[in-house]
Amino acid sequence: MQKKPQKDPEHKGDKTSTLEGVIGITPKGIGYVKIPDREEDIEIDSLFLNTALHRDTVRVMLHPQTPGERVSGEVVEILTRNKMEYVGVLERHQDFYFLVPQDMRMYVDIIVPASKAGGAEHGEKVLVAITSWDDPKKSPTGEVIKVIGKPGDNNVEMEAIVLDTGLRPDFPEKALREAEAIKKNEEAEFKRDIELRRDMRNVTTFTIDPVDAKDFDDAISIREIPGNLIEIGIHIADVSHYLRPGTDLDTEAARRGNSIYLVDRTIPMLPEVLSNDLCSLNPNEDKLTFAAIFTFKKDVLEKGPPTVESQWFGKTIINSDKRFSYEEAQGVLDDGKGIFYDELLILNNLAKKLRKKREENGALSFEHEEVRFLLDATGKPLRVYKKIMQDTNKLVEEFMLLANKKVARRVHELGKKEEKLFVYRVHDEPDQEKISDLIEFLNKLGYNIKIKNKNVSSKDLNGILKMAEGRAEKDMIQTAAVRSMAKAIYSTKNIGHYGLAFEHYTHFTSPIRRYADVMVHRLLLSYLAGKHPSQEELRRYQSLANYTSQMEQLATTAERTSIKYKQVEYMTERVGKTFDGVISGITEWGVYIEEKETKAEGMIRLRDMTDDFYEFDKKHFSMVGQKKKKQYRLGDTVKVKVKRASLDERQIDYIFV
């Protein structure tokens, strides 16, 4: 059924009072405009959107306000369009088509003339570009720019998720040709460059990665050196050696910003000849790397906090002795024997000390559970399981954090006489109002949290999180805490990293999958050589830092959407089955449930709670039966049955058992 375009609004507002901001649109078609330095968003009724789309930058006119009511207004101008291409199902109506958008925030269907259907057929999933939309009283007009395929097919659905996020998986031919040329000239390049590097091919080195990883960004070397010292090297794929500024390949990598990890596939930032071959630190192959090398006193494992005695940053060449999976390396530690057991034990013990020191300094300790899927040959989910964080995961994490922190600190030290522009990974302090809301939320769950002043340090927040250890609502509380905080972003202005409690921090360790790390490698190399980027380069880095943050958010959206799709798909074949769940949210229209094993969130609608007449108690975050006085509270463990699972809507409906 085609959605109706907007009616002609008659509301008269104050045309002299206009503000600019970014509009967010809900699935119900209501807009909220976020204005910089203004606490409350401006609500825009669907009648007053005037063709504004989700994430557009708009100018709004405020409506006359009644005391006590929410600030409202209407869009009077679209300043910048965020997105003009939408994925959906194409439906035929007489002599034309219309697109039913997959994105629920697209509140109107798009008319597609038969001549612009691109050979697509009724019922197919397609990508449509809006070509004109001047009148809000009419639907927009568009054309099919890509036929994706039949809905329900795994490959079609995964590609649709990526395209609808605004990402494009295919590499331009020029970029692919450049990548192949680099591969062809690899041997000559390698020989020319090898003498300029620290040769560490004879030092014990290995990688530790997920069992299904295909590209290996980082390797760790370890050896004893004179002076009763242990030398640990964090060797990172030297992507910037191959990826040269000004090439089509570099332009495409910058456009992508990062690799995208869907449930069943990776959409790489670099062509596979680079990501899985040339740059990847595969075992028993000579590889070019950019390293951060640290020494520690040998007795650090028995005495005191871990202190870096010396550090060195520069180009190395390595030959990895072993490709470990996390599980395999953990097995060696657990068994107390096996290849490189002694080295793994030293690294693990040192990592634990580094982690303890970090947490004592106020670093937040999140261990958010992630889900993984076992798929059949067609992409259908057979089993859902949780990713387990083992000591080996934490081992790698700690040494990557150390390298990232020390690289940022080194650039800061180099810039004491003259400030150096750099790409930092920053995390601002949380908004105190959001922290107050979090504390209120936790207290209504039965916690007794009192903060003496409004400024909540990361140590305070860590203490709050530790109170939830071992409780059913732990994961929900961690999610609420994450939502209360600012997002970590890339910036050339260093404000520190609140969550890690680091004064200086960057991303140095994953250049195969993050363009920010490529920028960091280039800048660090320049500064170590005593060079300084040109003004044009500086402006480009500032712009790229902002852009890369935006692309990271889009990639995260695509990844989460693919997980949600597979969770719903899994539940479509389990309608009528009973599961254990935790109440993760309560609203006036129902109760949100997160199923414990799959983490699949769904809703029990108020109309399906038929054993009583329930009302939402906002003050206590609970749903209360008016006759029997039964209460459902946030964090309660409940048994639920799957009533319905809709892949089209990506929604699950549960009912209480």
Describe the structure in your own words.
The protein is an alpha+beta fold and 657 residues long. It has four domains: 18-80, Nucleic acid-binding proteins (OB fold (Dihydrolipoamide Acetyltransferase, E2P)), CATH 2.40.50.140; 85-151, OB fold (Dihydrolipoamide Acetyltransferase, E2P); 173-420 and 507-527, no CATH class; 574-656, OB fold (Dihydrolipoamide Acetyltransferase, E2P) (Beta Barrel). The chain contains 14 helices and 31 strands. The strands form eight sheets. It has a seven-stranded mixed beta sheet, with helices on one face. Strands 1-2-3-5-4 form a five-stranded mixed beta barrel. A five-stranded antiparallel beta sheet has the order 8-7-6-9-10, covered by helices on one side. A hairpin with a 2-residue loop joins strand 6 and strand 7 (96-101). Helix 2 crosses helix 5. The longest helix is centred in the C-terminal third of the chain and has 38 residues, at 535-572. The chain is globular and about 75 Å long.
